[in-house]
Design goal:
This protein is mainly α. Helix content is 74%, strand content 0%. It is built from 3 helices and no strands.
Amino acid sequence: MTLRRRFSREFGGIAVPAICCAVSLYFGYAGIFGERGLMAWSQTRGDLAAAKGSLAELKAKREALEHRIALLDGRAIDADLLEEVARSLLLESGRGEVAIPREKR
């Protein structure tokens, strides 16, 4: 009986710190290597930088297309752009020019 009391008294004194240590280790590991931990955070920052670069590239392409559309506006058509579009669509060439059809991508 005394052995049982002594064991339970010592185990009770070790159980609480052991549980606290286990919980601390669990959350510490999750904070560093978890899905939203420090390692994932650095990867996410890299992905965000790549996405911002891609967004800037797409915005530049969009602005170029909007400018080109504005030049083909029905009220004031740019003659040079109209000739470029017509030649690319009809494969016509001027005197001394050669038109090479491009494959559609």
